[in-house]
């Protein structure tokens, strides 16, 4: 989960709270766990250097490169 996704979760929770909808303990604990996990991971930035490395590592094949970028953004590699 990215920092942006964590922020969205927090804003969704705030929206529920401000609309008077109570969050049950399980839902609140799940949200807290997700936010803590997101904040422990450094934000990933797709720099020119990373793009070049991924391009060369995938032999210049655009479809392999695209999948490599997706994996990198998800933190899989």
Kindly describe this structure.
The chain is an all-alpha fold. It folds into 2 domains: 3-40, no CATH class; 45-77, no CATH class. Helices cover 70% and strands 0% of the residues. The chain contains 4 helices and no strands. It has helices at 3-18, 25-40, 48-57, 62-73. The longest helix has 16 residues, at 3-18.
Secondary-structure topology with pairs:
Elements: H1 3-18, H2 25-40, H3 48-57, H4 62-73
Number of domains: 2
Biggest β-sheet description = none
Strand % is under 5%
Report the order of strands and helices: HHHH
Average pLDDT for all residues: 77
Distance N to C terminus: 14 Å
Number of DSSP helical runs: 4
Low-confidence stretches at least 5 residues in length (pLDDT < 50)?
none
Shape: elongated
The amount of helix comes to over 70%
Number of strands: 0
Over all CA atoms, what is the radius of gyration? 17 Å
> Structural class from helices and strands?
mainly alpha
Summarize the structure in short:
This protein is an all-alpha fold and 77 residues long. The chain has two domains: 3-40, no CATH class; 45-77, no CATH class.
């Amino acid at each position: 989960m990215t920092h942006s996704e964590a922020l969205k979760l927090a804003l969704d929770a705030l929206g529920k709270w401000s609309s008077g909808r109570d969050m049950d303990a399980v839902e609140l604990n799940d949200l807290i766990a997700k936010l803590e996990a997101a904040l422990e991971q450094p934000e990933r930035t797709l720099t020119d250097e990373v793009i070049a490395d991924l391009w060369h590592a995938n032999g210049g094949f655009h479809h392999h490169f695209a999948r490599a970028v997706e994996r990198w953004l998800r933190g899989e590699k």
